[in-house]
Amino acid sequence: MTRLTSYLRPGMALPLRVAGSVLVLVGALLPWATFVLNDGPYPAKSTLQFFDAPFEVGGFRLHMALLGLAALVVTFAPVPGRGRILRGLGWGAVLVSAVNVLFIAYNGGGLGAVTVADMPAFGGLVALLGGLAVLAGAYAGGIEQPVHLPTGLNRFVAWAVLLVSFAGLLMMVAWTLTAGGQGGVANPYAGAQFLSFLGFAGGLLAALHGAGVLPWISRLSEDHRPFSIVVLLGCALALPFTGAGTDYWMTVAANIGVYAATAIGLNVVVGLAGMLDIGYVAFLGIGAFVAANLSGAVAAKVDITLPFPVAAVIAAVVAGMFGSVVGSPTLRVRGDYLAIVTLAFGEIFVRSAQNNIGGLTGGPNAIPGVPQVSMFGTGFSEPITLGGTKLPSGVLYYFLTVLLVALVMGMFANLKNSRIGRAWIAIREDEDVAKAMGISTGRIKILAFTVGATTAGLSGAVFAHKLGTVSYESFKFLESVTLISAVILGGMGSIPGAVLGASLLFVLPEKLREFSDYRLLLFGLALVLIMRFRPQGLVPDRHRRAELAGEDIEGRPLEETVSEQAHLPTAAPVLPGEARA
Amino acid sequence: MTTLLQQIANGIVLGAVIGLVALGYTMVYGIIQLINFAHGEVFMVGAYGGLATYTWILPHSMRGHWQITLPASMLGGVVVAVVVAVIMERFAYRPLRNAPRLAPLITALGVSVFLQEAVRLFYPDAKSARPFPAMFVGGGLRLPVPGGQVILPWIRVALVVIAILLAVALQMYVNRSRMGRAMRATAQDRDTARLMGIDPDRVIVLTFVLGAALAGVGGVLYGAYQNTINVDMGFQNGIFAFTAAVLGGIGSLRGAVIGAFAIGLIKTLGGQYLPGGTQYDYVWIFVVLILVLVFRPEGLFGEAEKVRA
Predict the structure, then answer these.
(1) What does the alpha-carbon distance between residue A224 and residue A161 come to, in Å, rounded to a whole number?
(2) What DSSP string runs through A46-105?
(3) Lowest-confidence pick of A95-104, A281-290, A378-387, A478-487
(4) Is residue B42 pLDDT above 90, yes or no?
């Protein structure tokens, strides 16, 4: 990137930005596909639609038009952080146009589909070029220091701001979930539409981040924590009332919730305490098998039926006990050797479960017929009516997983800021120094494993009841890799990061059914690329960013802060972060 | 008695294959302290490279002649494995040379999954196990023992002989040659080695190349004696090999070979005599792995691991 940007001069910024925005806007209104694709008309397609019906541009073309307009406005309006905003918008335009151009070209049999087969259709290429120009313009003008909006607001103003932004977040989540519709044979364009929407949403969020809006909101929500938690929880519970409130999306959302909670648990071990656990999914499995055996399923070995909350607690405790067993080698083993030990434990679990150890796991037959959770006389798979609104089936499981995630997040956030959490971080940074500071590292490390495993066990109980069948197949090594990818993609040590990572990694295969074979291939590639280009993840934890990306907690490069300090001896102290050697 | 001796013979054969892979693990770890998790996948890729050479490159008329098919397939496997390993080193590991230690390990995990899936998706019909041609003379060595005989097919004999020859050759190369000395110097202290005029990047690439070449040979021979290969073979045997390397003391070539024979014997004898039978033979290896890592992480022949920043 540095090599590329070195060709840009500040003088080119304005022309590039203007030309780019205009091209994006024009590209959005031009036709994109030269003919109707094999699977029917491409959504928001193609011909000279704009000139027939100027106000009916929809779908990705609407997104492009919005990005282009926004870029044009930002180019001329005196807003702070202009370069950063344009960088976000430029990336958004590039991603949206690239996804659609590639898909149309792929599905329409080559470049002819986006150029001149039956009729000229250069919309995609023009928009792509425009996006690149905006991006180049953003870099040419220089990327400014991060913007800081004022935070000390009147309480009610802050509350209003938070309310609006969380409502916006809710809409964003609902749109993202439903974007492109349900993947599958009936809807061949779901994957492309979804990716295109992700590109738009990503660009928009990056632009908002550049304008300082997102950091501002997160600062505000930190200042008004109790209020934010209540509103966020309310928003999460309100999801079934939005467009995502169908059986299908509720099931998807509940699955995501289970994995998100598990990923947060893994984040304690990997992100906070800095110990790589590559057999973690075994604890989800232990929780699931315990819950299944206590559920009264026909195949269960144990002949007792316990109510769900009791079974869930037992599952969590058993998994936690196994967690402390697996964690005990940490007393003697460190770093990559520890990772291999966890891998060995994970494999032992899978092999044992596969061979139906003690008759507890059903072996290759799995444990089918785990009954649905039933409380207050309602089965959790039934549709319910709430305040006159009929809610889809599976909504109760969704509520259950929201509570699960909220519980785990709350626990995690409190632990992170507690004495124990600081001890974990200290161990991650330097175990010997931590020990010298009086932390009894052995106990604290085992505790990390125990907490992580307990979380996974609890999620496992929900998993078992929700799925109805528990098989060792769900807990193989590659599932651990998926969870680790989720944590790393989101950002190690970051709570929202783990949720975001888990959501992305479990929604994407749902949407991209036609690419489901390539799921693991892409995960592997993603791990390599993230470690190479963005080791701190999408939503980095503040301290982690200092460590992995060489930036301070405000997002400035460390070298700059150091030289700043040299010039201004009275500057506020900077959090010491270890730059990459 | 016959069963015991037969299982010991089988264990030695398995140990020879594992040893070829373990040498790669131990060399890479010795030089850059990276558990190259994807090394097992290099072994797997080598086996598929050998199969591809046999299927598409060798003329059909040559197929009956083991003197041609076996060396040609091994060469094909080695070339593919080496190319993959060099690309992997250049684009995945080298940029992370100075990153925090978790980063390269996670990358290695990613590379491993990527290679496994890439072969599964893009090699024709690799989604299920592929038959591997017999590339050697049929029949076998029959050793009379009290109460019966132990049968060892010739391909297995050849495998053990080739593996031992290669291990000895590697040992001599590392101990005697100029590049071998550069390797040992880099392993001891990369910065000082650089001051002595050694290019560490070259040495590291050479290490990956040597390891991959051995793994490639191992992959082809494994296919030839198992008569079938699949994309999971790299993961399984990679873990075995890693366990062997750790057991023998990671960083030590001699230790890796001895550890590999020990692992081979544990697997075959454990599958025969320990409770649970062959269904649990993997579990015993993992148990050994955990016990060694916890109680003697420096292995049987290695030096105590230095504490690194």
Answers:
(1) 11
(2) -SSHHHH-TT---HHHHHHHHHHHHHHHHHHS--TTHHHHHHHHHHHHHHHHHHHHHHHH
(3) A378-387
(4) yes
Nearest to B282 by CA among A475, A368, A56, A348: A348
Encode pLDDT of A553-580 as tens digits. Answer: 555 555 544 444 444 444 333 344 433 3
pLDDT single digits (tens) B2-15: 888 888 888 999 99
CATH code of the domain in which A90 resides: 1.20.1440
Residue A569's pLDDT is: 41
The size of the A-B interface in CB pairs under 8 A is 127
Residue A407 lies in a domain: yes
Place of tokens 């892979």: B21
Contact with chain A for residue B71, Cβ under 8 A: no
Among A158, A179, A206, give the residue marking a domain's end.
Answer: A158
Res. B166: pLDDT tops 80: yes
Answer whether residue A70 is part of any domain.
yes
Residues A277 and A132 in one domain: no
Tokens of A486: 């989720």
Indicate yes or no: CB of B117 within 8 angstroms of CB of A484: no
Residue A6 belongs to what domain range? 2-158
Q: What is the ipTM of this complex?
A: 0.87
In this prediction, residue A24 carries a pLDDT of: 87
Res A55: pLDDT: 61
The whole-angstrom separation of Cα A202 and Cα A87 is 11
Whether B96 has its CB under 8 Å from any CB of chain A: the answer is yes
The total number of structural domains in chain B stands at 1
Which chain B positions have a beta carbon within 8 Å of A481's beta carbon?
109, 113
What residues of chain B lie within 8 A of the CB of A526, using their CB? 110
**Does B93 lie at the interface with A, CB-CB under 8 angstroms?**
no
Q: Does B107 touch chain A (CB under 8 A)?
A: yes
- Same domain? For A287 and A435 the reply is yes
- Chain B residues whose CB is inside 8 A of the A525 CB are 110, 114
**How many domains would you assign to chain A?**
2
In the listed set A484, A505, A537, which residue is the last one of a domain according to the structure?
A484
